[in-house]
Amino acid sequence: MNIRTIRLVAIFISVITISPIAVAFVSDAGTQTTTAKRVEEVSGPNRDGYTAITTQEFKETYPQAELIILSPNGSTVHVNSEYTTYFDVDPVPGNPNVVEYVAANHLSGEECDSVDKCTQEVLVRENFATGESEILWSRISPGQHSTRIHDIDRINESHVLVADIYTDTVFMYDLDREIRTWTWSAQRDYPISGGGPFPSDWTHMNDVELVDENVIMVSLRNQDSVVFLSLNGTLLQRRTLGHDGQHSNLYEQHNPDFIDGSDPAVIVADSENNRVIEYEMQNSLWRPTWGWKDNRLQWPRDADRLPNGHTLITDTNGNRVFEINRSGDIVWSVDIGLPYEAERLSTGDESQNAPTATEEELKSRIDLSRPSGETERSDSTGVRVVIKRLLPNQILQAIAFVNPSWMRLWHVGLLFICIFNLIIWGTLEFRHSAWQLRLPLHKSGK
Question: What is the secondary structure of 374-400 as a DSSP string?
Fold first, then answer.
């Protein structure tokens, strides 16, 4: 093959791989305005209440985080963009237009005292009908990312539970007296040799929930475990779900919800395994009883079982929030950038008053007999699935998180093909040229 043919082939490959990316970029640039919000499209019939969604910022793709409230018909009725990022959001019983949420603002300079960068973490109560809000709790912590609190769970009007990522502790806080009344440290029961890097991001505990008046459930993301604690500080080891490094069970999960059924269950956004899965305690052992995924699901970080047996799922790198019915079919969806959590405000906190998958006889969309990640579904085809098979999952998640909003996963595949094509083309051009690779680089005499 002569050099002219090589050039024509290389140019052709470059054009067909770059063209879809360029079209997507131009289309997005033409539709964006300074007032554009995260919600791009809502599909499906009206829901039975308001839906609250929290989002995160990433300066290159979504430079502004938002708390968004959608009406039953999907229209946006409230947006708050005061904070750098938003995490947990919960309804307030007896107040249909009021939510409480966890958020953070990144600070620097004199605002941080002795460090260059820090974070203000807050628990806020907000009436989205009037726009009135009140900061219930606040603190300043060093750092800006791995230290941010993701979840605060209300116990009663005066007390809350805090999952403190910065200190790897769970503590109960009296809002009236402004004091801690109880603390559990993960170092009591877990070696610092496991999990993530110590002390910068060791446990990354991202969720806490009061299961009953005596038991607390905590998600230790970097230990791939959901643990249960008694109020006297004892780790209830026999109830632990998952194990550090045992990724077939859980892999850096987010936002587990306890379901108080005839046999207790936990529904989990199994993030790095790209699935939602439910485990049920049967004969003192956790057994998988239901799971769901599709080819678009990419780093889910929240899943709430609704009282009617449906499941509300937050797909962070898939840029969507959606609801599936008992058969696992999507019946309502929202295209939205970098969502963290979604809450149906009319159904209670998280998976409160919901049935287990066994009680509701829900249809699983994954093969529970196979280890997670061993196979894709039988209908897995196309560029997206090929990319997901070729790249390690954590690298894939990082790419998806930093992608511009207009760039889809298959665009990334085309970009890699284009770059590879240009490298081959450049190598062949160099070999055909009069230049030779020596130190120093010089031109040969041919």
Answer: S---TT--SHHHHHHHHS-HHHHHHHH
